[in-house]
Each structure stands twice: as C-alpha cells, then as structure tokens.
Sequence to fold (393 residues):
Amino acid sequence: MSRDFVGALLQLNAEKNIPREQLIRTIEEAIESAYQRVAGNEDIRVRIDPERGEMEVFRARLVVAEVEEPTTQLSLADAQAIKPDAVLGELVVTEHLGQDAFGRIGAQTAKQVVLQRLREAERDADFARFADREGELITGTINRVEPRAIILDLGKAEAVLPTSEQSPVEHYRIGQNVKAFVLEVRRSPRGPQILVSRTHRGFLRRLFEMEVPEIHDGRVEIKAIAREPGSRTKVAVASRQEGLDPVGATVGQRGARVQAVVAELAGEKIDVIEWSDDPATFVAKALSPAQVVDVHIDEEHRIASVTVPERMLSLAIGREGQNARLAAKLTGWRIDIRSDTAAADAAREQAADAVREQAAAQARAAGAADADEPVAGSAGAPPATAGTEGVTS
Fold:
C-alpha cells in the first residue's frame, strides 16, 4: 500500500509539474478539509510521510489564554495536562484517529476534494511558470484561428494573440509555429490566461537580443524604438564598449543579423541608427537615409527645425510622412523639415523684410523731425489788423 502511494505521488509530481513538497501539502489540506466536512467544525490535522506512504490523522487544538471556540481551542491548563511543556499559541494533539475513521463516505469526499485541490495546485503552478515570463518571448503552435484572435498552444496552457497585436502583413495558418511577446498573464478558473503580441516594441527588442550577441550581453544597448508594424521601424543603438561600432554590430556582416529579424517580421523594413546625446545630431541621424544640412533646436518648445537638400526633401519626409513621423517618435522632438532652397528663399525674404522695416523706421523718424521744426514768418509775428486811416465819409 505504501509503495502504491509513493508511486502515485511520484507520478503526479511528474505529470502535474508541481513541486513534491507542495503536492504533499495540497493532499494533506484536501484530506483535512474532507474530514472536517464529515466530522463538523473540528481542528482535524493530517500528516503524510511520503517515504513510507503512511498517513496520520489526529485532532489538535490551539492553546489560548481564553477559550472562545471549544472545538478548536484549548486552555493552557488543559493543554499542559496533556503536554506538560505546552505554551500559548501551540497546537496540541488531543486524539489520534485511524485512516478509516469516517468510512466510505469520508473516503469518497476526500477523493473529490483531493482531485479538486490538485487541479487548483496545477493551475497555480502553471500561472507561476508563465507569470515569470512576462516581457519574454515564447513560441507556440497555432491551434485555432478565431475572428478576433489567434490561439497558440503552449503545451499546458494557451496564449491569445488578439487581432490588434498582429502585424497587418502577416498571414497565419493552423499548425504554424509562432514567436510572440508575453504582455500579461492573468489568473482564470480555467488556468492562466496569457496575452501575447507581435507588434509591441518589446517583441522587436527580444528578437535583436536573440540575433545580436552584443545586445544580449549588454555591450550594445537599444536606446529607443519607433515602430509602425508591418511597414517600417527605426532602432537607435549605443555602444557600452569603447571601440565597438553599435550599428555595425547590430546589422551584422552583410546585414545578416538585421535580415534575420526582418525575415521574422515578414519583410518589415528596419533602419538602425546610432544614438547621440546631442539632440541636433540625433535628429539628423534619425532622418536617415536622408542627408541633413542643418538642424536648429528650440529647447523651450522641443521643436527641431531641419534643413535638407532640395533633392532629399521627399526622402526626408517619407511616403505619407512616415520617415519624419518615425524620426519624431524615436527622438521625442517635433520635427519641421524644409529644403535648402526654401530656407534660402525664406532667408532672403526675411532680409528684405528687415530692410523694408528699417526704411520705414527711418521714414517715420524723418517725419517726426520735420513736424518739430518751426515754419518761417510765423513765429513771433504780431496779429494783422485792418487799417482805417484816410477813409472819409
């Protein structure tokens, strides 16, 4: 009998992937609960020896200063009558019971409770295993394709890949192996509920960690990511090791490393640029592949005014403004782009406005001076009167 028990315990340990100590305690608590259902509100305890397969069932009460619940509590004097060295707060055994004390009904109840507790313990173990993987990559097999999500089979659990977390250019089929980024793990009555994504920036970061050893070991750091899933991504990298080219290490020889990431993302374009602490330099690099003539930084309003060659204007802006939009997300600056021709025209117009303003100011000053000068023959002259001399009637 003990050999059968130990064998069943080891088999459960292997099948359910639950630590042995936790498995034993789960069974003990389940049998205790079953005994209490049959015997009423009594503090019945169960201890299992996993090596010999023996189970001990006994009643025990808690030693307290003042007894309020006689079925579960015991005064210090009564406890010391049973166990002379008993102290307050100790659990004292008052009666030993046989394993068959409650007959077939108790055994059936115990079996049901044990199975229920084992299922709960298995769900808890699965939750703990996947909860530790939040922010990591997992690989699952597509089990079902639903209107609003794809269900991935992870072995002992399922992951949900919602439509909102899928790349618009990717197509999925049942049986396909898919990598995904674990966003969140929630508890549910049916086990862990795992939410995954293939559009999150963390997914791209983990892919680069897999493909680029320098990023994985920390010699190259990904400082920022701006991504439009399925279309284009910009990644800013910086080196923590003197003499190491972060862009070259990330791209790899002949682009092998970055192309492996591009292949996983179904052809999504990736621009790798070098991070810079200088905002003007960083903005200029973020607009790659366009060349930049000048960058003026407005710290107060966080605006970067960028001048590019006329032939590079459309490249700097990108199709439907994508290149400029991603550069703004990557750097955290609002970017205003204009061509060098437009900048020169604006400068000439500004200079002309300044000249016109100066001429107008001089004219206003001259007019004010003329108004202050006296008119000849008017200052100090007596008033004129009509004479009456020589007039006769």
About this structure: Residues 133-197 form a domain with the OB fold (Dihydrolipoamide Acetyltransferase, E2P) fold (CATH 2.40.50.140). The first helix runs from residue 2 to 16. The first strand starts at residue 44 and ends at 49. The mean pLDDT is 82.
